[in-house]
Amino acid sequence: MPGSTRHQNPAATLRPALGLRQNLAQFMLLVAVNALVGGTLGQERTVLPLVADQVFGLGQYTAALTYIVAFGVAKAATNYFAGTLSDRYGRKPVLVAGWLIALPVPFLLIFGDSWGLIVAANVVLGISQGLTWSTTVMMKMDLVGPERRGLAMGLNEAAGYLGVAGTALATGYIASSFGLRPWPFLLGAAFIAIGLGLSVLTVRETHHHAKAEAAGHVSVHAGAGAGLRTREVFTLTSFRDRSLSSISQAGLVNNLNDGLAWGLFPVLFAAAGLGIERIGILAAAYPAVWGAGQMVTGPLSDRIGRKPLIAGGMLVQAGALFLVAVGQDFGTWLAALVLLGAGTAMVYPTLLAAIGDVAHPLWRARSVGIYRLWRDGGFAVGALLSGVLADAYGIPAAVLVVAVITAASGVLVAVRMRRTDHHRRH
């Protein structure tokens, strides 16, 4: 009727629309931004382990991996605060702050004349990554709503890790032609400048989308609605809830084995006589399969549920690590890293989507931040554990131990985690 629109609730007409199709332009912009976030990290994956060995002469693996420990601790701690900050001040200011913090990183990596400055660069990089990557995750969750969360996380993480892979491959070729420093790290400087510009000029705030979803949300926990304090969200995500705590430990173990791969695999391959170009191919293969595979596994988890992919992916990773430990040639290691990427693709976006299934929209950002605290703490744990083991027993032994830990994590998910797919129907 002609007069019916005059009596509509104005708040209802202004409520942001949720869904991928409704927010496609902004969603794809955030995909591009996260590819740049990944590229900023990828500038280190091939080159920096070789800088530690060949430029600074760090013979002990434990000492050489201090930059990964520094990165992991800084990123994990920042993840914890990123959710709270984005709830308080909005998503966009936190994203922009993350890019601003990253500005000095390439120059510290290029001009740092002591290992302490390289470690300091990775503290700064960890803080930046904690703010930028966490916020792009939250913003995509805000935009798409509950039904396509797996697809959203698959695209987000695919963009980020394809950025890591592409940059790892490119820096390998650049380093083989022009040396380990400065040219490979200039890519990172370009990515930071572009990411900052896009975030300031074109990214829009999404916090109001989360509030719109919260208005129709039914909590999946008795007494765990919108009013939880951060301490309560921490204990729920870390320990009390069977699903959330299973997700948190799986995330920690996933990045434990990634810290091992980042810090020790290039050294292992170099010791076997592989050149920088081939090491770059291997360093890129793992995140490339990981990145591309998430475009399949993310939406697949929307259809078949999160738990089978998480438990199965951890077991696939364990098998791949065993193959790295026993391998002795380029072909075997390439097959192992493809398999490792496939297993990680099964796990990575699915863990984030499962957090989104269970957490209330008004404390979801904090729960994601706490999960990412545990997950990225795995970088530090992995670097320390694998470094100590490699110094004592050699790199293959360290890889075997991490393979066993990864398999145990998959079994724990299979036994303890509840299925979360029914939560999306609320």
Explain this structure:
This protein is an all-alpha fold and 426 residues long. It has one domain: Up-down Bundle (Growth Hormone, Chain: A), CATH 1.20.1250. Helix 2 runs antiparallel to helix 8. The two termini are 32 Å apart.
Shape: globular
The number of distinct helices, counting runs of at least 4 residues, comes to 18
The name of the CATH topology is Growth Hormone, Chain: A
What kind of sheet is the major sheet? none
**CATH class descriptor:** Mainly Alpha
Distance between the termini: 32 Å
Helical content (DSSP H or I, runs of 4+): over 70%
What is the H/E order?
HHHHHHHHHHHHHHHHHH
Strand count: 0
Strand content: under 5%
Quick tags:
426 residues; mainly alpha; Growth Hormone, Chain: A; 80% helix; globular
Task: Give the secondary structure arrangement, pairings included.
Elements (H helix, E strand, L loop, with lengths): L9 H5 L9 H19 L4 H8 L6 H4 L1 H24 L1 H12 L2 H7 L3 H30 L4 H30 L4 H19 L5 H9 L14 H11 L1 H30 L4 H29 L2 H20 L3 H29 L2 H33 L1 H22 L10
Question: What is shown here, in short?
Answer:
The chain is an all-alpha fold and 426 residues long. 80% of the residues lie in helices and 0% in strands. The protein starts with 9 loop residues before the first helix and ends in a 10-residue tail after the last helix.
